[in-house]
Amino acid sequence: MSQKVDPQLRPTTRPPRPVDKRMRLKESGTVAAWVMLAPALIFLVVCSIYPFLWIFRYVLYNYDGIPAHTRFTGMRNLNTMMADTKFWGSVVTTFQYAFWKLIFIIPIALIMAVLLNQKLRGSSFFRGVYFMPTVISSSISGMIFTFIFATGNGVLNGILQACGLIGVPVGWLTDPKVAMAAVIIMSVWAGFGNYMLYFVTGMTSISEDVYESSRIDGANGIQTFFYITLPMLAPVLKVVLMLAITGAFKDYEAIMVLTNGGPGSSTNVMFLYIYNLIFGTGSNAARQIGYGALLSLVAAVIVGAVTIVYNIVAKKLDDVV
Amino acid sequence: MAKNRAQIVYSPRQKVGRAILWLFLLIFAILVIFPVLYIILGSFKDNQELLLGGSNIFPTTFVTKNYADAWSQANFAVYTKNSLFLAFGVMILSLIISSMAGYVFSRKEFPGKEIIYSIFVAFMFINVGSVSLRPLYELAVKTRINTSLWPVILFSAGGGQATYIFLCRGYVNSVPRELDEAAHIDGCTFFQTYARIIVPMLKPVMATIAILSFRQGWNEYILPRVFTMTNDNLRPLTVGVNMLKNAGDGAAAWNIMFAGATIAIVPILVVFICFSRYFMGGLTSGAVKG
Question: Phi/psi class of residue A65: alpha, beta or left (left: φ > 0; alpha: ψ in -120 to 50)?
């Protein structure tokens, strides 16, 4: 029967088919989809949600890593925090660190990106070299700079003395006055390549014609930078600044290797202080995990607040410019 | 565009300016490369020379004994094996998880999808620092998987997965749905469509994820440090080298540490030199386009 259907009738029977097909495509494989999503979901729950909730549980407890010692202490952790000058000192140190890092890393990244954009010979080679430090583990870069900054046999003091720039070796890692400078040098070296690459990518989207016409109008390199590159790069700059700010506040791995917060507590940033409370190599009694949990939340709130303030300022600047 | 640029004729003054710029780029490149060069060249100095210091970064006598010592005496053979296991483990796990999840998020409609996805994204930004390693460590001890490197691999892959899922979802979105439909008509199941159609199409983004997750595993420091606190034979290079530094009189073992640091950075540098396109491409596609 079906073979004998009048050709003219066909159009009325055809339209439902594609819809039907789509429906089946949507409905089929629901079980398979959940199975395929399961590993990611399990990881999300175990690695992200569970630790996050765990922190809240211990904020009001005294806990040193031995479950039997866990005691409810109510507001005591909060009071400890209020009186903990070492913690608030580490917060100040974090702000200092972030300030100095950003002051150097953003202009360096921007300038190098602009220079790379001049398309000189070997630009892509230089770009690769500048990006290279970012692929090295922060623990190893911390270690490399421990050798470089060593007072007695470090190569930096060796070179500076050979050039006659300093008389006596500088205690880069032992003098509280210069230790922060050493930490900043390391973190700028290790991180500027990332931000530089964002700028380079942002600049490739600026049309060549704009530069062309500015050249015809007689703009020199510096004018081109301030009147064309910088304004057109503003959206990228805003994102990069945001990443750089939050990144600087969270740094502690390389600092841990380089100075471990010392000398004294001159480079003890807050996440390093917290790490030592939770995983400190001292005795169990020195470990204050419940207190560390509270400080972690406070630190996260501080980072969040800085981000919000930055966003407000960035928006205000938008309205002005 | 390159053609256009080539036609620009520079005046003599501009040529001098560009030469000065080029020189500046070169000097800056030497400064950037110096620490790495210093550590690699230093690993061929003998310990006496390292302890003396000075400004000469080239070894006066070229020795390879440091590597032999690091390899046999200081357990670096084990560290290297652990680092490789960790890096490849994180890479393979990340590839499987993120490509499957990215495919499901892109192609499947189910109740709660948007909420689940936004939780993934939210945890990309919530960072409470090292404290979250404590519950994970206790979990590993409780489930008795802390006698191997597996918890480090699992938690590293789990911690980094959101970014990779994000990348994969974006890429699958750009693959035409007609391909899925054609595969479905030909009798492919939901999973077969993924395995036979989507995965081959995902090659570029999978390469990026492979490189980024390999680097993540190879460079992981705090996580393995916490998990191998009491077991030297599980330590990857990043942790092993640093433990040497902390172990008492560090100065005596400078040569071993130089060799160890070199062993830790040279493989990742080689990977970077071979695949720099993916390193740099991955970074910007994740942040700027996203």
Answer: left
Q: How far is A32 from chain B (nearest CA, A)?
A: 6
Closest CA to B33 of A129, A267, A199: A129
In a domain, B135, yes or no: yes
State the CB neighbour count (10 A cutoff) for residue B157.
26
Instruction: Assess B11–A contact: CB distance below 8 Å, yes or no.
Output: no
Dmax (CA) for chain A in angstroms is 106
Domain A79-320 superfamily per CATH: MetI-like (1.10.3720.10)
Would you tell me which residues 203-222 of chain B have a C-beta closer than 8 angstroms to some C-beta of chain A? 215, 218-222
Measured CA to CA, the distance from residue B264 to residue A107 in angstroms comes to 30
pLDDT digits over A31-84, tens only? 889 999 999 999 999 998 999 998 888 888 888 777 777 788 878 888 888 888
Residues of chain A with CATH 1.10.3720.10: 79-320
Assess contact for B267 and B218: CB atoms under 8 A. yes
The residue assigned the tokens 């989809």 is A33
Same domain membership, residue B122 and residue B41: no
Q: Which of B9, B36, B120, B134 should be substituted to probe chain A, the one whose Cβ sees the most A Cβ atoms within 10 Å?
A: B134
- pTM for the whole structure: 0.86
CB contact under 8 A, A49 and B119: yes
Set of chain A residues whose Cβ sits within 8 Å of the Cβ of B139: 46, 50
Helix, strand, coil percentages for chain A (3-state, nearest 5): 75, 0, 20
